[in-house]
Known about the structure:
2 strands; single chain; about 55% helix
Amino acid sequence: MARSDYTHKMVNGERVELTEAEIDECVKREEEWEKGAADRAWAAIRQERDSRLVATDFYALSDVTLADNMKTYRQALRDVPKDNADPVKFQTQWHDFTGKKDGVSDPWPTKP
């Protein structure tokens, strides 16, 4: 949001103009929130990656021979953070894909 978007607040049901100090605080909070976007995206990506790894753990049990394509898939999941410099872009593509947006491919490795 732009600084000019912060103009009023509601107090006891009445619209009251924000002071310059209140506007400054709103802008500061928004800037801080934006700075954390990459960290929040990485947390969500890692959580999903870990969930996908857990879903294939039984393939890697000691009494099961792990197929090469499953090894490759699991390594590709582990490499997602290393292979993607922009977590916000990755997360946006992921959400667009799950939302069935036309022309958007799944950014995650394909499970064999």
